[in-house]
Amino acid sequence: MQLEKIKIKTVVANSAYISARGSFDGNTNVQMTRDKKFRAKLKLPHITQSETLKDKIDLEFESICVKQPIGKRLFQEYLESVAEYKPANEIWKDIETYNTIEDEDRVQKAQNIISKYLESGTKLYCSFLEEKSILRVKEDYQNVRDDLFAESEEATVKFLKDAPFENYKESMYFDRFLQWKWLEAQPIGEEWFLDFRVLGKGGFGEVSACQMKATGKLYACKKLNKKRLKKRKGYEGTIVEKRILARVHSRFIVSLAYAFQTKEELCLVMTIMNGGDLRYHIYNVDENNPGFGEDRACFYAAQIVCGMEHLHQNKIVYRDLKPENVLLDNEGHVRISDLGLAVELGENQTKTKGYAGTPGFMAPELLKSEEYDYSVDYFTLGVTVYEMIAAKGPFRTRGEHVENKEVKRRILNDPASYTEKFSEPCKAFCEALLEKDPNKRVGFKNGNCDELKAHSFFKDINWRKLNAGKPVKPGKDWDDGQKKFGVA
């Protein structure tokens, strides 16, 4: 009888989840899924309540007008309302468009920008731009270049940081920004969410699908049992994960939307990823032909690189990249997840120490108990890319029963072997990542991953489009896998 109740409960949860996904995907009226009572609680406060935030939040241009979408949107609305700032606002947006469109469309777009903003006497002429930078654009616009408008964009942002930004902070548009920040900071508890089926279970709890009652939007709720956390000394890792998730803002990393606690659990409400993890797709989507084609592996690897670059630019060492921790969304794009083992470096800190990770993925310097930096994450990327192609790890075959000390010995001493599934660029890429000397390993250098992105393995990746959220699906191998899983 008890088993029947559990089955019925599971069926009901699954049915509710499918119905909610329909509304989220646009097949049902979203208004029908919103709770009016909770919707009413999202009312913006009176400005007198939110103006005190001026003394509590980061008021730098980069923070408000670049990193925060609502701040940037309101700033641009303000610029549009002031005639003398409108040219700077328009060229700023048009240069961003130029940087993300297809190469074949860029010459025409460049001509449009020149005629609108770089010709004296025109309505939107940008007089704050230096004549020499304007001349360089006019002379070179027919050559498709990523940096064609780099000087113009830099000068535009410099202009906007000055009087326009200072005046924005005295406007009603900034008051509205403060109202949104006040609303963002209001506490939210479990009563705001509807729980659906369990998506997965772990050592400290489970992850279930949930729906925010006020908006109807779906999320994944990671529920961590407090007793288990205390017993297994997992509290610190959970707090670090929550703090890191709140800091990072990347389309390639699972985002934290809300966090709250109940009497029994700590709850992290995050981006829902309906496509499963990479491990499942490597081994289970086509069991007779496991692994990915190179174009698909490259597509996923590029997005992982973007996610890790963002972490490292925020002084965070991930330490646990593996196929299980890379999740797919409805469109088949990936995000890094599970930052429970990540560590933050201090302001003047360049390296850390400590044993963390998954056997078979940990870098040699970590296994030798040496201090290490971001380079350990690129070793794990090498293992992950290798596994995507070969459907086995470079140092341990899937299903092979071997002790961890033997895996450690192989990582420290043995080179990886490559079959015909690896092209020369792919092999060279994996070798560069699996380099045992961290000083020679390719990765995060001089504050970015430019060297890594320039590798021939990524020759077909358009990094501008990828970062703008406009990637191209990588061929039939990707389409077939997605159709079998039902997420594309």
From TrEMBL:
CC terms in the record's Gene Ontology section: cytoplasm
Amino acids binding ATP: 222
EC number: 2.7.11.-
Residue ranges occupied by any Protein kinase domain in the UniProt entry: 193-458
Residue numbers annotated as active site: 320 (proton acceptor)
Keyword Zinc-finger assigned: no
Gene3D superfamilies: Phosphorylase Kinase, domain 1, Regulator of G-protein Signalling 4, domain 2, Transferase(Phosphotransferase) domain 1
InterPro entries, per the entry: GPCR_kinase (IPR000239), Kinase-like_dom_sf (IPR011009), Prot_kinase_dom (IPR000719), Protein_kinase_ATP_BS (IPR017441), RGS (IPR016137), RGS_sf (IPR036305), RGS_subdomain_2 (IPR044926), Ser/Thr_kinase_AS (IPR008271)
The keyword Nucleotide-binding appears for this protein: yes
Keywords, sorted A to Z: ATP-binding, Kinase, Nucleotide-binding, Phosphoprotein, Serine/threonine-protein kinase, Transferase
Domain RGS: 66-178
Protein name: G protein-coupled receptor kinase
Protein source organism: Callorhinchus milii (Ghost shark)
Lineage, highest ranks first: Eukaryota, Metazoa, Chordata, Craniata, Vertebrata
